[in-house]
Specification:
Elements lengths: L1 H24 L2 H18 L8 H6 L8 H9 L3 H7 L1 H22 L11 H25 L5
Helix pairs in contact: 1-6, 4-5, 4-6, 5-6, 6-7
């Protein structure tokens, strides 16, 4: 009986977390538009400010996030494969966001008859692994073979 109660509590906690993530996810497009506007204005005021990664400039290697801005721009201008090349984490994040938000919207509209995508910690671990592998691969390609992102 105790195990059943603990299992029900874990399910309830998971559903509460997923509901909170869904509500927070509703604000992501708004935050994205605000950040895009700031990026656009700063780019106009100080041309070329985002052309150089400081990590690359100071240490001579690509950082974990190098290519992220180019990946976002490529994805939203209709070049998903180029986005994957620049930074696969961006593509992964957008796809996971759309699947999570879409499945929870369907769950909400169906009155809970269809369950939304459950949150799993390995989604985050997968993102971290993707970032580290991207970092290693891009720097090997750059210094081992002279292939750059630009």
């Amino acid at each position: 009986m105790m195990k059943e109660q603990m299992a029900k509590e874990r399910i309830a906690e998971g559903q509460c977390l997923e509901r909170q993530l869904f509500i927070a996810g509703l604000f992501v497009p708004i935050a994205g538009l605000v950040l895009w506007r700031i990026y656009s204005l700063v780019s106009l005021w100080i041309p070329g400010i985002f052309d150089v990664c400081l990590w690359d400039k100071w240490f001579g290697i690509y950082c974990l996030g190098c290519g992220g801005t180019r990946a976002l721009i490529s994805f939203f201008t209709g070049h998903p494969l180029l986005s994957l090349w620049y930074h696969p984490m961006v593509f992964y994040g957008i796809v996971m966001y759309l699947v999570f938000m879409g499945s929870h919207a369907v769950s909400l509209l169906s009155g809970g008859r269809i369950r939304g995508l459950a949150f799993r910690a390995w989604y985050l671990y997968g993102a971290i692994v993707l970032m580290v592998l991207n970092f290693i691969l891009k720097n090997i390609l750059r210094y081992g073979f002279g292939i750059t992102m630009k």
